[in-house]
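Figure 2 data, in text form.
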Amino acid sequence: MKKTGLTTFALAMLITGAVDSIRNLPAASLFGSSLIFFFIFSAIVFLIPSALVSAELASGSTEESGIYHWIRRVFGEKAAFLAVWLQWIANLVWFPTILSFIAGLICYLIKPELAQNKVYLVTVILITFWALTFVNLRGINVSAKFASFCAIFGMVIPMTLIIVLAIAWLILGKPSQIHFTVSNIFPTLSNANTWVSLTAIMTAFAGMELAAVHIKDIRDPQKTFPRALYISVWLILTTMLLGSLAIAIVLPQSQISLVNGVMQAFTSFFEAYHIGWLIPVMTVMILIGSLGGIVSWVISPAKGLLQAAQMGYLPEFLKKENKHGVAANLLIAQAVIVSAVCAAFLFMPSVSGSYWLLTALSTQLYMLMYVMMFVAGICTRYKFPNSERSFSIPGGKFGIWAASLAGLTGCFTTLTVGFFPPDGINVGSVFHYEAVFCSGILAMLLPILFFYGYKSYKSSCTLRMSEAKA
């Protein structure tokens, strides 16, 4: 495979484009002015710890990296396969949510009412995901260039613009839907629904570790990866916090749509400033940014699963790579499963309800993987104390313990509140939500047992053949 030599900038854009998505802003804006507290809280207990721990784990790798190899090094193959499976399957559940956002954007160019049409959403989701799958079949070099272009023109520029528009809104003395008082910024923590909504922000910060699977394709990876993470953390935190506040300032909480809230906000700004002709232009730019974000999520988790497949956990045909070094059959299988997951939009009473269910389900699965990663970060320090690392979390053992425990706190908080349905979103009865939610988690985890059995059966067959030859 030809080495692409991803630079710090290219890698930072790949990470930022994957994690920092403008589609996350509406869900976070539901917090109102208290989102300042929750963004800082989430950054302390999740975003920064996950960046620090993944940077340290990656800086000790030169040939292979990613969650599979980090967990395998400490806990063995079975635990490693569980971790990479959780990462992969969580993304398959998440894909329909970001794709539904894209479908909502297209509605603004055609007919806004279509955003609540389930058949339309599913159709656009399937067409878009299959198209991006074929883009990724061209290899990581093409994917990285595409993601960098989309991140700049479809994420950084729109994010900057919505922030500038909100600042101008306040300077001009226009009415704000939120107020920055101490009582509003610091929420009532006894309110269960406040913590339930935290799922949206924690989900928005997931994915910092993804780019590590491309360690072979990174120029000077032990230095480049930590630098790229540092740049990404600040870009993600700043743009998402200020962007979410911009939506909360201009839109009443009851009117914010999880699917097309961003365009609602831009429409309000543009109409107030008499520049409505920019609405279709901005729609296309955000659409480009969303497509770029998905590219990273399509190929990176699949490449992590390929690492496990090469150890015998998946059938041989899924390991086949094309001339661009991409596991083509695995990506095709992934697209088939995502197509099936899209049926969730047909089983929930509302589009927003389906969006929330899939977001919460994806978050639960992903947080389980992060629990394993944070524990692995601690254990790696003790099991390989003399391992060469170009980056180590400052503070020695205290530093790794502090970062990992903070991350575990965020993970367990999110895992706990994920089982409670939110107020204000039609997810059906509590029993209906819990039944679908728990069934979804079970359905996503059960295949693990099959693949463990497959690996065991395959190993026993190989042993019998060897004995027969002897």
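Caption note: The chain has a mean pLDDT of 79.
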